[in-house]
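Table S2 (continued). Query chain:
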Amino acid sequence: MTKITKNQLAAMLIITDTFALFCFRGQISFITVLGFAVGTAIQFIMSLPLVRFCSKGDSISNSGKIVQSIYLIYLLMWGGMLFSMLWRASDVIYIPYENTSGIWGKLLIAGMIALVCLYSSSAGIKALSRSSVIAMSAGVVCLLIVAVSAAFGSDWNNIITTKTYDSFMTEITRGFFLSGGLGSLAVFLSYAKGSPLKNILYYFAGKIILTVIVMLSSILVAGGIMKITEFPIVTAAQLSQPFSVQRIDSLFLIIFAVFAVFSIAVQSLASTELLIKIFPDFRNLRTTSVLVVMIGAAFMFSGENNSFINIIAIGVILFLLPMIMLMKRGSKK
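Corresponding output:
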């Protein structure tokens, strides 16, 4: 089995979560930041059975076709959600196509992304994980520039005055839902060198830190117009101007596109890994088939919020299935 480092694993997963965060819709307040942090902490606690399962040398990719099929369905579902998020955000990101709002515009955007993902994922997990570290590093630099600009050039009273109409429990639910790296975490955790517990702790800690930085920066920059902006994090990046001769939104557009490609590529690679195990005779066009199914699934999630469905799915793949597999393994002893 190809092994990757904990930095490479965390980079692949955090890129997916960060892209979903870029596409976040709705108002953000300090309560939202706390809710997302608590939601991520709950995910970490729920992932402990998965850590226990993988610490004995087992892996999801070798856990039987029924279990593999459930994880494959989740990965395809979340890949569809990522495509749907991309389509929605294209209205404010200004992806350079004259009609991105129609179905043909959506298919063109998805097709271009899919072609790059096809190339990225076909290189294998080693190449994708290495390049993810580079992409993550560039993204962190961009986000830190926005954060520093927000810290020195914005009104800190926005932290107190910016409010949302949602309760703290609702914000925890939103934070729990908006996490796209969990399916690929389950698949790739056994690929990482070292202790699964340390690897997963490293990932969740990095995710919380980056989420807090991005959200607080967005409140500082866009807090005054939070009620009238649909994508507050994108808006904050567009309004931030740390340099007198260059706006940061052009750099953010590049980071957004790169993270979109990598996040979908990670889902497609994890899906392909499971597809190989489930259908070993299916050798041709596996990644292409996975991407086509994801694009088709995107139309299912292009309407209303599907947070309840995803919360149930996260509970199943992160906690319930690993617990069942642990109990099954214990009964054999």
